[in-house]
Amino acid sequence: MAMGTNEAPQPLVLNGDVTPLEELSPEDQEELRNLKKELKQLKTQSEKADTVKSRLLLDKLDHEEHKKQAQDEMMKLAQEEKDFWKALENQKQDLEQEALAIEETNPQLRQQINKQKEKLEFMRSENESLQQKFKIIAAIPEKAVKFIGVEKEIPDHKLEEDCLHIQGQFSIIQNPALTLSGGQALITFEEEQVAERILKLARCPVTIDKTKMDVKPSRVALDTTVKFEVQLNVSLKKIEVSNIPPILPEERIRDKLELNFSKPSLGGGEVENVKYNKDSGTAVITFLHTGVAERLAMKKIYPFDMGHKVSEVFVSLCTEDRLRKFQTFCGTSRRTVLLSGISDVLDEEDLQDNLEIHFQKPNNYGGEVENIKYNAQGQTTVAYFNEETVASE
Fold it and tell me: pTM for the full model?
């Protein structure tokens, strides 16, 4: 009996006969043990083969499942691609229709744009023309002012409170004008009836220095003129400071302004408020009391100490102006006639005298001449009319 096992030794079967193991020769027993060992190895290999076979079957099933999923995914992607190309084709058709519609409306839009551009250009040109007509450059003359009386009595305790501003009002009237070209003359008669008689003639035969010419009379159409009022308000507590160098931060410049203009030794006073504009280099300073602003404005130039540098700034009273009652009007002179088609047969002064003599004669439908101005060929003159001689339209 073998040790460590309860099993009895098995007999060896040869050719149908059972031979006990003890009866075998040692060589046969050794061979038998080798055969058993080989059998055990084959059995182990068979089990491993079965395991590999099972694993391969499982892998095959897994691959088939993945293959099915991949096929489903591919079919889904193919359908999505088909839907995408269909949607793209529909979008393309819609865009083509929109492009066609835009192409049909483009000429109309271009035509409208061109019309608007022409309208804009016309309005710009008209605006420039009006700006030139209404541009007034004139210095207001100095006038002596005479005190004639007190308009309103103000108590002493309210004097400073109520007298904080000087108010003024100016009425400005632009004289009507006419541009006189070369070979034209303006003649003003003393009576309207004479001018009306001349204007009824299609032409006026005039002989000067044995030269005959047909002068064409026409009514004077004056340029557009304006009237307006300007209200001026001058503060007695505020000054405007300009030419401020922007070399410090805004807050520091504001502090420097308050410090500099509060010095009584330089004519300043107690500052109530400072408004500084860095972009324009200007400031508006409000003082607590009246009299300081006037005193500083009379200096016109003030030393501005910025710490490391002293600059000169300009000082003026702070004014506010307001435009009122702006009116435009056109007019014509009823006693003045424009004469055109005049040839330079004499010098300007002699020709003007001959024209005046001609139109003074009653047999030439003329009358007493108040004024006449002839403009020689190649010259341009602007004639101005008094408001009294112009009839508004």
Answer: 0.43
Q: What percent of the chain has pLDDT above 90?
A: 5
Q: Which of 184, 168, 206 is nearest to 322 (CA)?
A: 168
Q: What is the mean pLDDT of residues 194-222?
A: 86
Q: What is the pLDDT of residues 298-338, one digit of tens each?
A: 888 999 888 888 888 999 988 888 888 877 777 777 888 88
Residues 6-15, mean pLDDT to the nearest whole number:
47
User: HEC string of the chain?
Assistant: CCCCCCCCCCCEEECCEEECHHHCCHHHHHHHHHHHHHHHHHHHHHHHHHHHHHHHHHHHHHHHHHHHHHHHHHHHHHHHHHHHHHHHHHHHHHHHHHHHHHHHHHHHHHHHHHHHHHHHHHHHHHHHHHHHHHCCCCCCCCCCCCCCCCCCCCCHHHHHHHCCEEEEEEEEECCCEEEECCCEEEEEECCHHHHHHHHCCCCEEEEECCEEEEEEEEECCCCCEEEEEEEEEEEEEEEEEECCCCCCCHHHHHHHHHHHCCCHHHCCCCEEEEEEECCCCEEEEEECCCCHHHHHHHHCEEEEECCCCEEEEEEEEEEEEEEEEEEEECEEECCEEEEECCCCCCCHHHHHHHHHHHHHCHHHCCCCEEEEEEECCCCCEEEECCHHHEEEC
What share of the chain in percent tops pLDDT 70? 83
* Average pLDDT of the residues of the chain: 80
Mean pLDDT of 109-125: 86
Q: Which distant-in-sequence residues (6+ apart) come within 8 Å of 247 by Cβ?
A: 306, 309
Report how far residue 219's alpha carbon sits from residue 333's, in angstroms, rounded to the nearest whole number.
8
